[in-house]
Amino acid sequence: MRSDAATDAGRSPRRRRPATKARFSARRPQGAASPRPLLGRPSRAVVPRNLHKMEKALRGAFLDIRSSNEFTIHPANGLLMHALQSFSGNTYMLQSILANGDYTTEPYCRLLQCWASELEKDAEMMCQGEKGRKYIFLMNNIYDVLQMIRRQGATFANVELVSKLNSLIQRYKKSYFDQCWVPLTSTCRLNLDKFTAEFLATCDNQRTWKVTAQLRYELRQEIVDLTVPLYELSLSALHANQSWFSAVLCSFKRVTAGKKKQKRYTGEELAQKIRGLFEG
Q: Which of 60, 103, 156, 224 sits between 20 and 30 A of 95, alpha carbons compared?
């Protein structure tokens, strides 16, 4: 009879069964942390870092100021679209960011603010001393982003995001009018000759500015609505209060003083000049 030792020696070594997750769980001391997964969702610390990287990329987008104009598309626009797409529909990433104490708004709001800030900085450098032109640059670029969102059918194109972009357009549009056209309305009430001269100078300056199609038509109509009715009202009041004799006397004084008589335009003639704006 073979000995137990001989029997054991003839047997192949028993393979140890791999430990299952259940067995490890059973051995884990109570209260111990679960093992960190190697793959899967990013940690809550990684997600905010990704947002910081995207913001840094937006701030680092380079615009060649010397070769740019009001119609130049800023390179940060494409980066913004890519960043927004990264967060689109990723509920876990959104929850991870909002769970961090430093974040109180959705990431696209932060990215939008960062992008707008970068555009404003470059617009200020590009359009130094040119009244109103930087706002045309800003509005052109917002329209570019809106068009990309609509053209691509972006999943992140929610109502709030589009509303924020439209609010930026309205803010920049108001600043543009406050700089370029609203001051003329005060002049129109006081001195039609001065108004006409400043109006024509503004039109000549902005006639070659490049503006995206939809914005171009909107601005033209709003300029017409702001200036032409007021001009026609002031012109009618002038005619009503000025007799034929006083009109001749005023013309004589301008001629004898060496001043060129300012042509009296009709409201329609002013509107035609406005419709010639922004042709590039």
A: 60
